[in-house]
Amino acid sequence: xxxxxxxxxxxxxxxxxxxxxxxxxxxxxxxxxxxxxxxxxxxxxxxxxxxxxxxxxxxxxxxxxxxxxxxxxxxxxxxxxxxxxxxxxxxxxxxxxxxxxxxxxxxxxxxxxxxxxxxxxxxxxxxxxxxxxxxxxxxxxx
Length: 142
Description:
The chain is of the alpha+beta class.
């Protein structure tokens, strides 16, 4: 009886966690889609809504580590000052793993399409659930 009760409780816990896990991953994927839409409307501020608005945000790129939400926003605006410079963004999510109820690890590809060329690379994102909202706390893009 005790073994059966334990197995039943374990089954319920894993089922609930699995459902929660799927909902969280779906939310992060929806956030990625919203970022892509914001970028393609040339709205960098809305694109940045999914980053942790903190001085502790880390963005790692070819020039090193940038700390802070505002500095990351400033760098995006400097690198992409016009609609033409922004191109059309496409994300391809390659792998998503929920590490805990409050953290998700995501690997993907990015592609910017311009009228005369395409550029792209890969990214690794660490998402955390803070104050009920999934936000990027670390972005490594190459």
